[in-house]
Structures are given as C-alpha cells and as structure tokens.
Amino acid sequence: MINEDILSPQSWLLKVTGYEPSTAKSRYLHNYPKLAASLRAIPAMLSSVYLFIATIAAVWVFVDLAWSPAAAHHTNDPTIITLVQNLVASVYPIRGAVVLLIFVVKRSAWTEVRQKIHILIKLTAPAKNAQTSRLRFLSPALVIATFSSHILFTTLMWVTRDKRFNRAGTQFHPDRERGVCFVDICFRQRDILFAWVPLVDVPFVLSQQVLLCSVLFAVYLVKLLKLISRDIQSEFEAQLKVTSGSGNLSGNVERWTFVYVECQRFMCAFNALFGWIWFVSVVLDFSTVLGCGSNILAGETSLDNDLTAVFVWMAVPGTLYITVLFLPFVLVNEEAKNMDVSLRHLLWIVKRNIRHCQVEGPTETRITFSDTKSDIYKGDYEWACPARLTDDLEQLTELVHENPLAMEAGGLYTFTRSFLVAVITTLATLLVLAQEILDRSRSAAACHSRHDLNISSAGRNYSCTPFEPPEV
User: Fold this and answer.
1) DSSP H helix total and E strand total for the chain
2) Backbone angle region of 184, left / alpha / beta, with phi > 0 → left and psi within -120 to 50 → alpha
3) What confidence tens digit (pLDDT) does each residue in 457-471 have?
C-alpha cells in the first residue's frame, strides 16, 4: 500500500514497540480474543508505567529544586521565577509518555485514518507517484533528523552535567562517588542514566514518530489540495477562451466534490485521533521552552555557563516543535482557502460564458444551446445543462467555503498562521516579563546589600526603594 510507503519508518518503529496495531498479527490472533486483548493492553500498561514513574520523578525534582535554595542555585531569584525555571525538570520527562498514552487510548482510530488516506490516494491514482515520491524520501529523513538531534542533545546534556559537577567538586565515579541528590536521597550518574534513557528518551523519540505521522499526512493533504487548485485554475484559464474548455467540466466538478468530501471525512477522523496529542504536545513543549528561557535569563555565574548551553540547545528544538513542525497544518488550511477563491473565480467565469451563450450579439449571430448541441458533444462547450452545472459548482463552492479543512487541537484551537504568531508572541512576552521581574528583584537585593554594608561599616542610614513587582 502506498500510504504504508509514506510512513514506512514511523510505522515500523511503532509496530515493533507495539503501539501500532499489526494487520497480520490481528488476523492470526482473530481466534484468540483474550490473547489479542492482552497484547493490545501491553503498550497501554507500559505507557502508564512510564508516565507514573516519570511523573513521580518530575514532581520530586520540581519540589526539591523549587524549595531547596542549595539546589536551586539562584537564591536571590523570586519564587515565581524559580517555579518557571523548574518547568523543564517537571514537564520534559513526562512529555513522551503522555503523548504515547493518548495514542494508545485512541489507537482504534488509527486503522480508520490509514484507510481514509488510502482512499484519497486511490482517488488521485494518476498522480500518485508524483504525490508520494517526495514523501517516501521525507519520511526516513525526518526519522534520521529526530534521532540525530535527540542523541546529540542527550550527549551534550550528560557531558555538560558531568563537567559542571566536576567543577563543583563532585566526581562521578560509578562505584565510589555519589552522583546527585534529591531530597536527601542520592543517586550515581550511571543509575540516573540507566533510568533516564528508557523512561524519558525512548518515549520521547517514539512520541515524535507519532507526531511525524500526522505531519506527513498533512503534507500529503497540502499536495492534494494544490493539485486540485491547479486543475481549477487551468479550467478557469481555459474558460476565459469561451470555446476551449476542458470538455469535461461537469465531470471535474463531480470529482472535485467527491475528493473534498473524502478530505472532510478524513479530517474528522484525523482530528479525533490526533487532536489531544497536538494539544498536549504544544502545551508541554511551550512550557519546556519557557522554562529554558527563564533559566537562560537567570544564568549569572561561570558555573552556569555550561548549563546555559544545555538550555539553549534544549530551547531551539522545543521552539521548532511548536512552530515549524506544525507548518504543514497551517498550509492545509491556507490551501483550502485558496481552493475556495479559485472556485469562486471559476463559478464567475462559467456563469459569464453561459450568459454570453444565451444572450449575446444580434439574432443572426447569437449562439444558442439548440444551435450548438453538436459542438457540445465534441467538447467545444461544456454547458449542455447550464442550470445543473452552475448548481453543482455553487454547491462545491459553498461546501469548501463553509467547511474549511483545519487541524483542531482538542477542539480548543486551530492551527493557523495567526496561531503560530500568537504562540511566539506569548512566549516572548512572558520571557520579557520574567526578565523584568529578575532585574527588579536583583536591583532590590543589591540595594539592600549595600544598605547592610553601609550600616555595618559606617553606621549611617541608607534608604532603599522597596521591591515592587511589575504591573501586568
């Protein structure tokens, strides 16, 4: 199947790990319903265990870092900034497990989505090779990019962590020295690494494959809508010549209508399967980037320079995950709107041509439908039944206008260009606000330090302006 070629690497990874149902395995286990149910429950149980352990660890780290000044390393920062900084430690570890758990819960809809995209591919069979050839190369390229970037980030994070604690005087020897402590319980670095990879890294990479499946489907929809828009534009340009239309406008309108209805049906199943996955992914990635930005703004000492590099590297892919990753979703919505405009132009030119055929010029040169029946069947004129043709075209135009294709995240927001701009603007605003709070807090702390120093050395009174939080 062609749609399997589109998602070949992602589908293989999800099948190997048990998150995508296998058709062959389902046929084999058809006579063993209890065994089949048990096998289907394994990924859900694993995701639940991952999520439970990762959540406990995240809350543990968050509480320890937020309320332990020695561990926070920023004793002068306001509590609200400390809490935002530690969003990274509490949100990033659970992101992959949450996405996988939602996918497992809604896994029954996955087969329906694959079937509907296969229907769309069969409808465009003449152009299927051109439509899917690039996707067959894009799919493994995205898998390689996902693995490479995550391995590079993880390596950088652990090397920097080792370097940072070595500077602080803590040597990570797996058998002699302790690694890091949380709430008076200490772990060696090797123990943390062995727990981190299966509980955080593996679920995160697999969750990216789930998201990439939705992205590749969206890319195919963009290509399909562009193909239809080109056909409509070609028909419009042909109708401008009045007598040189395609000769099958009614058939084209019927085909366009059928394809768009199938796109709508696919979109309903698509949003039902991936809607909450997109929502959770955007919210958690946004929180991670916000926490990374706060840590970068709060970094002061040379000891924090290495850690700042980790947060910078972590913020860059996080920002891409909430913007560039969802660009195909935005393009689907925009291509549907372009199709609406093209259909309105075509409807106008068809009505104009029909009107000119009915009442144009003197009686001896007027073109009527009874005079041109032979030309109609030759393909010179399409409008043998003008009322039916215009009705079909108007219905298609109304269908596209009133039912635009749009990806909805949990029914709460739609992926549009304005949404992506709003996400970046909100993130920048919150970081500017965090910087303002940090500046005022540190200014007040420095003022009080000078005040205490003057009192102890000279015994003079020194007044400071009390710290006031900025107005929001």
Assistant:
1) 17, 4
2) left
3) 555 444 455 545 555
